[in-house]
Design a protein that fits this description.
histidine ammonia-lyase activity; EC 4.3.1.3; histidine metabolism; 2 domains; Fumarase C, Chain A, domain 2; mainly alpha; Aromatic_Lyase; Fumarase C, Chain B, domain 1; two-stranded parallel ribbon; 9 strands; lyase
Amino acid sequence: MNKVVIDGHHLTIQDVVNVARNGYYVELSDDAKLRVEKARALVDKFVQDERVEYGITTGFGKFAEVVISKEDAKRLQRNLIVSHACAVGDEFDTEIVRAIMLLRANALSKGHSGVRLSTLQTLIDMLNKGVHPVIYEKGSLGASGDLAPLSHMVLVMIGEGEAYYQGERLSGEEALKRAGLEKVELVEKEGLALINGTQVMTAIGALAVYDAINLAKASDIIASMTVEALRGITDAYYHRVHEVRPQIGQLKCSRNLLRILEGSSLTTRQGELRVQDAYTLRCIPQIHGASKDAIEYVKRVIEIEINSATDNPLIFEDEMRVISGGNFHGQPVALAMDFLGIAVSELANVSERRIERLVNYQLNDLPAFLTKKGGLNSGFMIAQYSAASLVSENKVLAHPASVDSIPSSANQEDHVSMGTTAARKARSIIYNVSRVLGIEYLAAAQAIDFRGDFKLGRGTEVAYKLIRKEIEHLDEDRVMYIDINKASRLVDSGTLVKEVEDKIGEIE
């Protein structure tokens, strides 16, 4: 059985993908179990001693000064969940829900949250048995964490709300029953521990950065095909050009291009056909490379966040202390997600300009709009329109969410991150980029077909054969969205990158 063992410290982005998309089983490590039990024992002691501690024996937010009696402490936790389940909009995809559940379980397993081991195990059991809460996308300010959407997750744990189980949408109580699970009666601190954190924005972010890495690699492959189709000059990728400006992503991209294009008979050298290419060909390492560097920064932020305790207050059992802080504030993730959206947008921005160079007969020596019988056939004319539309939409989506803040909880929470909005926008941008790259992939293959007798590069040959196995050359106009979806699926599924890497080794 494929599984991921969580302990709050060693979860990777690949682990998140494996659980969210590939259905890996999740187990809690023995060390984590011990830490969780110790933290819970301290919470129980403070409750017994009737100590005034935020979120344990007090209200929440602006109600932090309201002391809650021992008799009302359990009711407080349930009230917290039902009152905070205020998310709206579309439902998160199942993969996002699974990632949210995994990340919340991993954060709780650090032993700084004070939940009972049985409560944590219920969350893990739900994940393993496929009880997927209905969680709506909108309603989080990104501080205090992702309160509203996470409350929808916890509703199911207490037998409320709704969940999907074996493809059927059910009440939370019925979904648990069918899966053979008991609902949880929350006790002191548990409600807050389950919803106060950055796990929604981080779950979206973890999958988004994984997909962005794939798109950055695919961009290098597809751009290389366009370079061949347009008889591009490879001198611009020469290693010494990039060593005198040693930006890491730029160096990686230049190496990628030369490896992918190695052995091609279609590429040219400086002065053979022209002295230099337009920026969208000549500056691929500089443009793609900058996005690679940005994605790498985001990856580091997410790797830290998925193994962090982000609720409040935090339990430090070894010091017998409960400290109220601000780790729930999503600013690190918010900035990173805005940066990711901008970085990935640029991959589509330059891709669309390469599409224009492929279809515009005034900029190349190919048939207009890549069709032999122009006028009767429109060829790739409107495919470029679609790419332009997606790129323009990305410009709107790339406006940073993190520069906005709106006070909440009677101004107690007077600066918020909007990190979940930033993450959702980045995810939408990634979808759009995959479609633009799919269109370029189609157009580059079509253009290469017009070059007659040729030898493709080691990497581009693999990419060309892959798309031609799925989609035939466009001789006469046909329904284009089918081809676009097929090509884009080869891009966003990782199939294109995997096939090329199997031939030439890992793309940086």
